[in-house]
Amino acid sequence: MGKDLPRHVGMIVDGNRRWAKQHSQESAAFGHRAGAAKIREFVTWCDELDIKVVTLYVLSADNITGRPSEELSELYEILANLTEGLSHEGRWRVQHVGRTDCLPDPLTQALVAAEARTLTNKGLHINLAVGYGGRREIADAMRSILRSHGKEGGTLEELAELLTPEMIADHLYTGGQPDPDLIIRTSGEQRISDFMLWQSAHSEFYFVEALYPDLREVDFLRAIRDYARRHRRFGS
What is the DSSP letter of 53? Predict the structure, then answer.
């Protein structure tokens, strides 16, 4: 399987709330805790296969405006604890992808501290997509390009001539990383939900019926094997 492995796997974490309801729990936090525990398992599976990068879509910017405040408060705490735990693994590098202006200070501090703590780690690179939106990411990349160009004294006309897809990619939250080769979504839903819109232009997709806390290693390995059998056309 080695040479056919994806370098970068994206995971759209979905189904935690439904999992809690299936287990007769009124609080969605029950499902979010189970999902956080599964994330720890999932990144271990990726590490054991020597996958280089994994991006976990755990909280979208849209979720922040659409969820009850009590659920969000519990989820923020769960994510802060998850972030800290991953950063103390010793070999993994943890990076936040998303905006922090919509997140509470304790979670932002946990994400910033995890990045600093793991900056020089050479193992699996874990992107935590928290407060993330793909369209917003592209807009932020364009703002970053405009600011950089303006500081150098360039004009808009000059930028129009210089602007390339590669330049935009370099200013995304994941600038410098390989694009995801494989994106997996749990819970049976078959939509991208504003996840890595730019980076997923040539990604392969795999959908799993299981709710995220019920994801098994065998489900993950089936996704990897399915990816390995595909002939990637990269848009052709």
Answer: E
pLDDT tens per residue across span 28-60: 999 999 999 999 999 999 999 999 999 999 999
Dihedral, 125, 131, 137, 143 alpha carbons, nearest 10:
-120
**160 in any annotated domain:** no
191 is an annotated ligand-binding site residue: yes
Say whether 19 counts as a known binding-site residue: yes
Q: Judge whether 84 lies within some domain.
A: yes
> Does the annotation flag 67 for ligand binding?
yes
User: Is the model's pLDDT at 235 over the cut of 80?
Assistant: no
173-184 average pLDDT score: 98
d(CA 34, CA 213): 6
- The whole-model pTM stands at 0.94
Question: 61-67 long-range CB contacts below 8 Å, 24 or more apart?
Answer: 61/98, 61/99, 61/102, 61/131, 61/132, 61/133, 61/136, 61/194, 62/133, 62/194, 64/102, 64/103, 64/131
- Is residue 40, in this structure, part of any structural domain at all? yes
Residue 60 belongs to domain spanning: 2-133+179-229
Q: Catalytic site residues?
A: 14, 63
Percent of the chain with pLDDT over 70: 96
Say how far apart CA 50 and CA 61 lie, in whole Å: 30
How many domains does the chain divide into?
Answer: 1
CATH of the domain at 183: 3.40.1180.10
Residue 80, in any domain of the structure: yes
CA 230 to chain centre: 23
CA distance 30 to 28: 5
